[in-house]
Amino acid sequence: MRTIPCVFLCVLYVAVSWAATIDIKPNVITVPVTRNLEIVCSLKRVNTPELSALFSLTLLQSNTMDEPKFTSLASVNTLDNKISTFSLDESATVVGLINNSGESFLRLTWTNPMSEKSGLYRCSFNGVGVLGNPLTLTSTGAVVVSVTDHDSLTDKMTAFENSSKALKAKFDILSDYTNNLHTNYNSLISRLSRSRDAAFYSTSSFNGSRYYLPRDVDVLQVTWAQATCELYGGHLAEIDSNEEFHFVRNFLVSKHLFDVVVTGANDEEKEGTWIYNRNKAPLKVFNWATTEPNSGRLANCQCFWKGGNWYMADARCVYFNNKPNDGYVYSYLCEVPESSTDV
């Protein structure tokens, strides 16, 4: 009968030992790379129903692993939850708490740990069992050290320096290329600007756009005209308000250069249904000259017409000014947003 308590106590010890844990982060410290080493001892009361009370929690260290000799580092007791430390340096921070109705813990954190922080660490939980017997639970973990030797560190720094030099050389090449590209771009913009000013008459600004009328046109082909407008950042003029119509009309009256000035609208897809060339949206302004439009499928492009007092008419989409035709001289009108007039 005397052996029963002993057997019971032995089983009790094994059953509850798993509830005591030690958590070490990281398990491997690299000198001088690792910034923090954290060791946490913890015990959850809910996992130890056989434990009547926890009196103290102690963290110990042994610098040797083969024949461990543990010395205390820090502890916390249940009387006043006071933290006691033993010969810890200034890089150490310790917090802890004993809570017999919840979780008890003791946490030690070292900043910039050196090689002497390697070794075995043991958490010792001391209390009393439900039978009134002394009960000690332990949990042990290890920290190993990886030292970066001076030569290896020097080699890495040299390799990094060489890599930085190579990267700088590539950056310099890219910078030179970018500068050349910027110079060439500015040169192109300047040439385009000069060619535009030489080839076109320009209006003042209207609602964020300017209008450009060629000084001379040999052949009028709407797709070519659109491409020319796009070269300067715009498109064939799209008249979408009466204010815009009268602004452009006054400009054409003042120049009095051509008989027909084609804009960016057409009824090619369906006769009599006028749409803008770019977005295919219905035409908004119909300031037609008297009897216009009147040429049916022969004339599918919208224009300003001198013979109609510079009101709108339908016109051919392709016209050769240098060949005998109907006596008219054709041109086109570009609309260029102000943001593109820096060209």
Q: Find the structural class using helix and strand composition.
A: alpha+beta
**Topology, number of strands:** 21
Q: In oligomeric terms, what are we looking at?
A: single chain
Whole-angstrom Rg: 45 Å
Flag low-confidence runs.
Answer: 1-18
Could you list some keywords that capture this structure?
alpha+beta, C-type lectin domain-containing protein, signal, 4 helices, 26% helix, C-type_lectin-like, 6-stranded mixed sheet, 343 residues, 5-stranded mixed sheet, C-type_lectin-like/link_sf, disordered N terminus, 36% strand
Please describe the topology of this protein.
Blueprint: H1 3-16, E1 20-25, E2 28-31, E3 36-44, E4 51-62, E5 71-77, E6 83-85, E7 92-97, E8 103-111, E9 119-129, E10 134-147, H2 150-199, E11 200-202, E12 209-214, E13 219-221, H3 222-231, E14 235-236, H4 242-255, E15 260-266, E16 275-276, E17 301-305, E18 311-315, E19 318-320, E20 330-332, E21 334-337
Parallel strand pairs: 2-10, 15-20
Antiparallel strand pairs: 1-3, 3-8, 4-5, 4-9, 5-6, 7-8, 9-10, 11-12, 12-21, 13-19, 14-21, 15-16, 15-17, 17-18
Give your account of this protein's structure.
The protein is α+β, with helices and mostly antiparallel strands. Helix content is 26%, strand content 36%. The chain contains four helices and 21 strands. It has helices at 3-16, 150-199, 222-231, 242-255, and strands spanning 20-25, 28-31, 36-44, 51-62, 71-77, 83-85, 92-97, 103-111, 119-129, 134-147, 200-202, 209-214, 219-221, 235-236, 260-266, 275-276, 301-305, 311-315, 318-320, 330-332, 334-337. The chain has a six-stranded mixed beta sheet, with no helix packed on it. Strands 15, 16, 17, 18 and 20 form a five-stranded mixed beta sheet that branches. Strands 1-3-8-7 form a four-stranded antiparallel beta sheet, with no helix packed on it. The longest helix has 50 residues, at 150-199. Residues 1-18 have low confidence and may be disordered.
